[in-house]
Specification:
heterodimer; A: alpha+beta; Ubiquitin-like (UB roll); Fumarate Reductase Iron-sulfur Protein, Chain B, domain 2; 5 strands; B: alpha/beta; FAD/NAD(P)-binding domain; seven-stranded mixed sheet; five-stranded antiparallel sheet; 32% helix; globular
Chain lengths: 239, 547
C-alpha cells in the first residue's frame, strides 16, 4: 500500500492506462481516467487548500460544476466522489456567498412563522427545481422548500437530512434563496422541539445529578487490572 | 466500477452461505485468542514501524516513525528572526481547531464569560467529526449505567486507560446527549421517544445513539451553527492553522502564531489561554496505510503542545478501523461505518465463510481481517492487487426488513452508488484503514495539560481510550472534553496576569534538538499532506518577492 505519495488512491497513478484530456478552468491537462476529479487536480500539479476537505463526501468543500464537450447540459458533482470523464470542462465552487439568519434557538417556536420571519425570501421560491437538479447528494431540494412554505418543519428536516451544505443549490437559485440554511434551521427546530421526548434520557440526567453512580465508579476506578478483567470477561451482553 | 469476474464468483459463495450463516452466528474470541491475534497481526505490534522519541518531556516513548519525525521536526518559524510585534487579535481564549471539540470548547468558554477566537486550518467544520458516521455512546437506558459503560471502555482499551478520564467520559455522556438535543441535534428515535440505539464493537449494551449515518455531520453542523449564532462572543478565523504557541518567560501559554493560508502572512493572536483541538494525524499515513481521516489531519496539535512542554500519552497506539473500503480504488481506505455490523452484517472470506465475530473491538477485528488475508490466504483480491474481505451488507434488510439499509445508512449507500455498487444487493469489500490516534497530549479531566494556560480536547488528547478506542466514544470524547476544556479555560483566564509574549520555548526546543544530535527534517507541524504530483521544476520563492 505504500507509494511515493501515499494518498489513499495512489496506486492507480502507476497504471498504464492512457491519459484523457480534461479542462481545469479552461486549461487542458491530461490525466489517468481512473482518478477522481480531486486526485486529477493533484495529478496536474495543484496543491489544494480551497475546494478540499474530508475527501470522503461528507463536508461539501469540493462542489464542482462541469460541462462535457458538445453537450448543452451543466452537471454538478463533488470532486472527491466523481471520476473524471474525457473532455470534462470543470471549475470548483469552493465558496459561495450565503445568507444565514442569526437566532437563539431556545427563543424560537417551531412554527411556519419562524421560518418566514428568519428567511422571508423563502416565499419567493418559484418551485422551478433548479436546486434539485444541482444537488450532488440527490436531495429533492425543491420538495423541502415546498414543505418549508407549507410550514411542515418536520418534513423539511427529513428531506434535507443528508445535506452537506456545499451551496450549489443556492448558487443556482434564480430567486437568491439559501436553501441549505433553511434546512438547517428546520432540523434544529425538529431536534429540539418536535422529536418525541426521551424520558429515559431525562431520568438518567436526573440520576447523574443526584450522584447515583458515583460510588460504583469510585469502586471500579480502584480495581487492579486483573479484577477489572475478571468483571469485563464476565459481562452480560445485551442480545 | 462493477465487480470483477473473480470477485463476482466469490460473491456468489457469500450469497449461497447467507441463509445458514444468519442462523449460526460466529462465536466471540476468548481473551487468549484476542491477545494472540493482536500480537501477531495488529500494526501497533510491528516493532520496526516504531521508534523512540529522542527529545522532550516524553523522551523514550515509542511512536510510529512518521509521528516521531514530525514531533522532532524543526519549527515552522525561527525564534531568532521571527518578529513578535503587537498581536493582530486579542482574546481571552483562543481555540485552535474547528471540529466538534473546538466548537464545543468555544461554546462553553463563551458561555462562561470569555471572549473567544476559534481558528481553524480549512473551513470551520472541516474535521473528522464531520465524517464520523456510526454514532455516539451514552448509558441512558434503564438497563445500562455509566459503570457498565466504564467497564466496556477500559476492557476495550486493554485496561490501560486513565481511570479519571474514563469516569468523566461515561458520567458526562448522558448530559452531553441532552445538551446536543437541546441544541437541535436530531437523534434517531422510536415513535415513543426512546433513543433507537444499537451495539458497537465491544459494547455490552445497545447504547450507540445515531443520526442515520450522518451522526458526526449532524452534530458538527449544529455546533457550527450555534457558534455562528454567537458571533458577538466568538470570532471564527478560517484557513488560519496554528503553527506555534506563544508563552511568557515562565512558560505560561499566551497565544499563538497562525498562518493565513490565503495570504501566506503570519497572524499573531494574544490570548490568556489556548485550547488545542486540532484532531488526529491519519494523513501522516503510518506504515503506508490509507486513512479515513480528513485532509487536514496531520497531527499539528501534538507537535505544538509537545514543544510548549506538555507530556504525551499512548503515542504507540493508533486505531486501524477494520472496515475501510477496499474497492473500488477511488474510495480506498474511506470509512464504512461500524454501524453496518451493528445492524447485523457479518464478515466473510473469499469462500463465503465467516471467520470472526463481527463486533469484536476494532483492534481485534482489524487484526483478524489481516490474519485472514495474510496468513490464511483467504482474502479477496481486487484488480489492483488490494486484498479485502466481504462485509455482507444485504443481510441487514433480511434481518430488519426491506428498506432498512437505505433508511439507516444513506451515506454509505450513496458513497458506493457513486461508484456503481449497490450495497443493498451486493456485499462490499473492506480492509483495515488508519482511523484514529488513540494517544496524544496527556491531560486531566478538566482539559488542563500541566502547561499553564494550555488546554486540550478531542483526538489530540491521549489517555481516555487507553490502547484502543471503542466505536462511538470519539464523538463522545470531543463533546465531553471540549465542553470541559472550554469551561476550564474560561475559569483560568479570570484574573490571570501574564508576562510578555515570547518564543523562548522554541529556542529551548532548538537547543534540545542540537544537544540530542537531531538535525534537518521537514518543518512541523506539516499542516497538509503532500499529494501533489510535480513533473517540472517548482518555483520556491514568492511570485512577487517581498521587500
Amino acid at each position: 500500500m505504500t507509494a511515493e505519495k501515499p494518498d489513499n488512491a495512489s496506486s492507480i497513478l502507476g497504471g498504464q492506462a492512457e491519459l484523457i484530456p480534461i479542462y481545469v478552468m479552461g486549461q487542458r491537462v491530461d490525466v489517468p481516467p481512473s482518478l477522481t476529479i480531486m486526485r486529477a487536480l493533484e495529478y496536474a500539479g495543484y496543491t489544494l487548500t480551497r475546494g478540499v476537505g474530508c475527501r470522503g463526501g461528507f463536508c461539501g468543500a469540493c462542489a464542482t460544476v462541469y460541462r462535457l464537450k458538445g453537450k448543452p447540459a451543466l452537471y454538478f458533482a463533488l470532486a472527491c466522489q466523481t471520476v473524471v470523464q474525457p473532455e470534462m470542462y470543470l471549475a470548483q465552487i469552493p465558496f459561495f456567498p450565503y445568507r444565514r439568519a442569526d437566532y437563539h434557538l431556545e427563543e424560537l417556536q417551531p412554527t411556519a412563522a419562524t421560518l418566514y420571519q428568519l428567511y422571508p425570501e423563502l416565499l419567493r421560491c418559484l418551485a422551478c427545481g433548479t436546486c434539485t437538479k444541482a444537488c450532488p447528494q440527490g436531495i429533492d431540494v425543491r420538495a423541502y422548500m415546498a414543505a418549508a412554505m407549507r410550514g411542515d418543519i418536520a418534513a423539511v428536516a427529513d428531506i434535507s437530512f443528508d445535506c452537506i451544505a456545499c451551496g450549489l443549490c443556492s448558487a443556482r437559485c434564480p430567486v437568491e434563496e439559501t436553501q441549505y440554511n433553511v434546512g438547517l434551521l428546520a432540523r434544529r427546530l425538529t431536534g429540539r422541539y418536535l422529536s418525541p421526548v426521551s424520558q429515559h434520557l431525562l431520568d438518567r440526567v436526573q440520576e447523574i445529578g443526584d450522584g447515583k453512580f458515583v460510588a460504583e465508579l469510585q469502586l471500579l476506578k480502584s480495581l487492579e487490572k486483573a479484577q477489572l478483567a475478571e468483571r469485563y470477561n464476565a459481562r452480560e451482553i445485551e442480545a | 466500477m462493477t465487480y470483477t469476474e473473480s470477485m463476482l464468483a466469490s460473491i456468489a459463495k457469500v450469497d449461497a452461505s447467507r441463509g445458514s450463516r444468519m442462523s449460526t452466528p460466529f462465536r466471540r474470541m476468548t481473551p487468549e485468542e484476542r491477545d494472540d491475534v493482536l500480537r501477531r497481526f495488529h500494526p501497533d505490534y510491528i516493532q520496526q514501524a516504531m521508534r523512540e522519541i529522542r527529545i522532550g518531556r516524553s523522551q523514550g516513548m515509542r511512536t510510529p516513525l512518521e509521528m516521531a519525525d514530525v514531533l522532532e521536526g524543526p519549527a515552522q518559524i525561527d525564534p531568532a528572526t521571527f518578529q513578535l510585534g503587537a498581536p493582530d487579535l486579542l482574546c481571552d481564549v483562543l481555540v485552535i481547531g474547528g471540529g466538534g471539540a473546538g466548537a464545543s470548547a468555544a461554546l462553553l468558554a463563551s458561555e462562561n464569560g470569555a471572549q473567544v477566537v476559534l481558528a481553524t486550518k480549512l473551513r470551520f467544520g472541516d474535521a473528522n467529526t464531520m465524517m464520523a458516521q456510526g454514532g455516539i455512546q451514552a448509558a441512558d437506558k434503564p438497563d445500562d449505567s455509566p459503570a457498565i459503560h466504564y467497564l466496556d471502555v477500559v476492557g476495550g482499551g486493554h485496561f490501560a486507560n486513565s481511570p479519571d478520564l474514563v469516569e468523566a467520559l461515561v458520567s458526562d455522556a448522558p448530559l452531553v446527549i441532552r445538551w446536543l438535543e437541546e441544541l437541535g441535534v436530531m437523534f434517531d428515535k422510536l415513535p415513543d421517544g426512546a433513543m433507537n440505539t444499537v451495539h458497537g464493537g465491544g459494547t455490552s449494551r445497545k447504547r450507540m445513539h445515531s443520526a442515520r449515518d450522518y451522526s458526526g455531520a449532524e452534530i458538527m453542523r449544529v455546533l457550527r451553527d450555534e457558534v455562528r449564532c454567537r458571533s458577538d462572543r466568538i470570532q471564527v478565523l478560517e484557513f488560519n492553522p496554528g503553527v506555534e504557541l506563544l508563552a511568557d518567560a515562565s512558560g505560561r501559554v499566551t497565544g499563538a502564531v497562525l498562518l493565513d493560508l490565503e495570504t501566506r502572512e503570519y497572524r499573531l493572536v494574544g490570548a490568556k489561554a489556548v485550547v488545542l483541538a486540532t484532531g488526529g494525524g491519519g494523513r501522516l499515513h503510518y506504515q503506508g496505510f490509507p486513512t479515513t481521516n480528513h485532509y487536514g489531519a496531520t497531527g499539528d496539535g501534538v507537535v505544538l503542545a509537545y514543544r510548549a512542554g506538555a507530556k504525551l500519552a499512548f503515542m504507540h497506539t493508533m486505531q486501524y478501523h477494520p472496515t475501510g473500503a477496499a474497492y473500488p480504488e477511488q474510495i480506498l481506505g474511506q470509512l464504512v461505518t461500524e454501524k453496518v455490523r451493528g445492524l447485523g452484517a457479518q464478515v466473510c472470506n473469499l469462500h463465503g465463510e465467516q471467520f470472526v465475530f463481527p463486533l469484536e473491538t476494532r483492534d481485534v477485528e482489524s487484526a483478524a481481517f489481516i490474519r485472514e488475508c495474510v496468513e490464511r490466504g483467504n482474502g479477496v483480491a481486487t484488480n489492483t492487487g488490494q486484498q479485502g474481505v466481504w462485509l455482507d451488507s444485504p443481510m441487514i434488510d433480511q434481518i430488519h426488513g426491506a428498506g432498512t439499509i437505505e433508511k439507516a445508512l444513506p451515506a454509505m449507500v450513496r458513497q458506493f452508488r457513486n461508484f456503481s455498487i449497490d450495497m443493498t444487493r451486493q456485499p462490499i469489500l473492506v480492509y483495515p484503514t488508519l482511523h484514529f490516534q488513540n494517544g496524544g497530549v496527556a491531560h486531566a479531566p478538566d482539559g488542563s495539560t500541566g502547561v499553564a494556560g494550555l488546554f486540550v480536547a478531542g483526538e489530540v488528547c491521549g489517555g481516555v481510550h487507553g490502547e484502543n478506542r471503542l466505536m462511538g466514544n470519539s464523538l463522545l470524547e470531543i463533546t465531553v472534553f471540549g465542553r470541559r476544556a472550554g469551561r476550564s479555560a474560561a475559569a483560568y483566564v479570570q484574573g490571570v496576569e501574564l508576562g510578555e509574549r515570547t518564543l523562548a520555548h522554541l529556542s529551548a526546543w532548538e537547543q534540545a534538538r542540537r544537544e540530542a544530535g537531531v538535525s534537518g527534517g521537514r518543518p512541523s507541524p506539516i499542516l497538509l499532506p503532500d499529494y501533489t504530483r510535480h513533473v517540472r521544476q517548482v518555483r520556491q520563492d514568492p511570485l512577487i518577492p517581498v521587500g
